[in-house]
Amino acid sequence: MDTKKIDSGSLKEMFLQTEKPEEARQSQDLVAKEDNSKKQHEFTWAEKYQPKALKDFICHREIAEKVTAGDVNHFVIEGLPGIGKRTMALALLREHFGVDILETREEVLALDLESEHKRGPTSSIQIRVQASAKHIEINLSEPEKREYATEVALLVIKETQNALTKKPSMQHNLVNAKAIVFYQAEKISKNAQPQILKFLENSEGQYKVIFCCSEICKLQILKPVCRVIHLAPPPNKEIVGVLNFIAKQEDIELPHALAQTIAENSKHCLRQAIRSFEATWLADYPFKEGQSILTGWEDELAIMAKSIIEEQSLNVLFLARKKIINLMEHHICREFVLSTLVAELKKHVPDSQTQLDVESLYQQIPIEDFWGDKKLSYEGEVLGSRMRKCYRISFAAIEEFVAKFMSYYKHQKSTVCIKPDWCNSSKQ
């Protein structure tokens, strides 16, 4: 098998050369099918049992007991993706404003760009936010905000301050928006942070800003006016405590050994432990000795594999990339993702030689896997740093495998006229 090195540029060029309007339309249909599939496989426990108040925390309980929303105006909450930054931020705001903070809705803000921030003919942008009577939440990494993340942060803080001093110019009533929560706040450029710092210094307790980020080193300039809350990966003991709490609420008998194994397999990711517990319970209950533990991602990987076989395009690669990011944020072992994906791909390819080629591509991926490192000890920030490194390495490896397979399979179809197995079955 030809295994020439494929970079993202050549891959993109290959797709663009062959992708036709009809294929683009099919890609859009595929996006819709992916969204429908996601709805069919939705897990609910992680959201259902999110702590709403600081007193309800089991993981990070010590931190929740020490912090209050009233002692400082602004916060930076640092932690890995999926660690619970949003949960902590909203619990802080409920502590200060009350339960009406729960009543959120999606709104669209129209922001007029100031002259120094205009790029080309663009003079204004529209962004989607989650809002309540007292706060707004903005994810700076979402597509419509990513390019203007810094400008969005500056304008929203500035206009919130203006609104509270009866000088609003934004096309939105922010008079009651006395708190702003930024997610992916590391997207704010260091050049703009001194200006934001001045706004925060002059806020005089009129409003609160909470910056949620993965790495505090990118927001060092804002630290003098913010209280920093570091959310370390929770130890297995705390995760088991959450699983036992959910089991009690759902009237499920959960053996301690099974809870312990689920916690260990989650690699200190509470969301993944809850998802795994729910998937295992749905598949086989009452639990028995030697219970097979699911991750809750088996169906998602099967859908991804089928999508890759059906179409090799930039849209499908983009969708696969989003799913891989989600898997990594749930600390799913890279070897599980790759081995499951390979097995699902081999179900759909038509001949033994192609199956061998898939296996060969898989074997080319480096075996280093920090998630599977048995020596990975619980050391708070040290563990978090190692997990970030693992996240990047694992994501790159899985994305590389998917891109190489798509390139290989697209080439094979163009030269050998491969027909997926479901094409044959549809004629019977």
Order of secondary-structure elements:
HHHHEHEEEHHEHEEHHHHHHHHH
Structural class, from helix and strand content?
A: alpha/beta
Work out the radius of gyration: 24 Å
- N/C terminus separation: 32 Å
Kindly describe this structure:
This is Replication factor C subunit 3-like. Residues 1-37 are annotated as: Disordered. One of its GO terms (molecular function) is DNA clamp loader activity. The chain is of the alpha/beta class and 428 residues long. The chain folds into three domains: 8-43 and 297-422, Zinc Finger, Delta Prime, domain 3 (Up-down Bundle), CATH 1.20.272.10; 61-230, P-loop containing nucleotide triphosphate hydrolases (Rossmann fold); 236-283. The protein has helices at residues 8-18, 21-40, 45-48, 61-66, 85-97, 143-146, 149-164, 193-201, 236-249, 256-265, 270-283, 298-310, 314-329, 334-348, 352-363, 381-416, 421-426; strands spanning 74-78, 105-112, 124-131, 135-139, 179-183, 208-213, 226-230.
Key words describing this protein structure:
single chain, 428 residues, alpha/beta, Zinc Finger, Delta Prime, domain 3, disordered N terminus
SSE layout:
Layout: H1 8-18, H2 21-40, H3 45-48, H4 61-66, E1 74-78, H5 85-97, E2 105-112, E3 124-131, E4 135-139, H6 143-146, H7 149-164, E5 179-183, H8 193-201, E6 208-213, E7 226-230, H9 236-249, H10 256-265, H11 270-283, H12 298-310, H13 314-329, H14 334-348, H15 352-363, H16 381-416, H17 421-426
Parallel strand pairs: 1-6, 1-7, 4-5, 5-6
Antiparallel strand pairs: 2-3, 3-4
